[in-house]
Design goal:
Length: 212
């Protein structure tokens, strides 16, 4: 029980690292959550602080999820038992994503979990994540809506995992498929305001040539 608590707490603290908030404070002495879309994530940093800051924030956020799965989960004494260990990795990943969304270092107001969630699955299922990332890039390039690309990518991930397991015979762990469904639902839930703006035609478009 103590082992599980340590993994959860460490993963949550790693996920809680307030990358976007720190970027705003360091570069412009602002709270990024009071500018642009009001979200403490890479997209808003890209929009408010520029593409260089946005890329750095995105990479750090992805790394947080990856680190939880590959560095914190192995603290388990059962890391040699694949059937059990996957649950420790999932636990660590979920805690990191929760830390990013509800960061303790930012009054429990963080980002939407997309970058950190991608990092978790990059560690657990790299090929499906790369496919989803390519779809994400295509959607954003075509529509300029990062929110739409994020939601479509999150929606596709469990579909890809199910196809690999049941149609192609690739042994994707069932718990991983369940996690992808739950995470996809969570990401869509955190984008509910974006969904309303997309319906109303008022969603912010990403500009590749400038920043706000």
């Amino acid at each position: 029980m103590i082992e599980i608590l340590i993994i959860i707490v460490l993963s949550y603290l790693i996920g809680s690292f307030p990358t976007a908030i720190l970027a705003g404070k360091i570069l412009k002495r602002i709270d990024i959550r009071e500018h642009g879309s009001g979200n403490a994530g890479a997209t808003n940093v890209f929009r408010v602080l520029g593409w260089k800051a946005g890329v750095i924030v995105l990479l750090v956020d992805v790394f947080k999820g990856f680190a939880a799965v590959w560095w914190v989960a192995p603290l388990s004494s059962l890391s040699q038992n694949a059937d059990v260990y996957i649950w420790y990795q999932i636990l660590a990943g979920v805690a990191a994503i929760a830390g990013h969304i509800w960061t303790i270092f930012g009054g429990f107001r963080g980002g939407k979990g997309v970058g950190t969630g991608a990092g978790v699955f990059l560690g657990l299922a790299p090929f499906p994540v790369v496919l989803c990332f390519l779809v994400f890039i295509g959607v954003v390039w075509k529509t300029r809506f990062v929110s739409l690309g994020s939601m479509i990518g999150a929606f596709l991930l469990p579909i890809i995992l199910v196809i690999r397991r049941y149609a192609l015979g690739i042994p994707e762990p069932l718990p991983l498929i369940v996690l992808s469904i739950v995470l996809g639902g969570l990401i869509i839930l955190t984008h509910k305001a974006n969904i309303q703006r997309l319906i109303n035609g008022t969603e912010n478009k990403l500009s590749f040539g400038s920043k706000e």
